[in-house]
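Q: How would the structure tokens look for this protein?
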Amino acid sequence: MKWVEYLSGPREARITLWGHDLQYEIGVSDSEDDPRVVELLIRSTSEARPITQRDLRRIPLERLNGAARVFVRGGFLENPEFAWTHFGHPEKHEPQKPGPRGYDDDFYAEIARLARDAKSMKVSARQHISHNKQVGVHTADKWLKECRKRGILVPGELRR
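A: Here is the predicted structure in token form.
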């Protein structure tokens, strides 16, 4: 976590996380047992930077829920045992498991989107997919091949 600002009103805190150029205002449940984020407002840190669909898919909800738990149990500043470093790392997502007939077209459309994002960023598509989906590059290669087979990616589309 990079910065926490206490708010008055419906949302209790504005949080800025390392690695994110967005701010998250959270409203927290009243439950002492397992407080959770029940309200979320996303703000861009710059007028020139719009919020995109990709941003919405990358909301670090587990990190924000962890912040909510600490917030309800005594606050950030009052808790000397608060592990700030936990919030500096991106959360890890479990790899999506295929169904009995393999992955569906939505999954491969997401793989194609990641590949196109990689091309626009001028990085390796297989490395980008491997990093984002937390799989090996060999698996990313198989997924790219399947995208081409299904017609989601055009052969040669990712060439530089």
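Strands lie at 3-6, 13-16, 22-28, 37-44.

The first helix runs from residue 53 to 57.

Upvote if useful.
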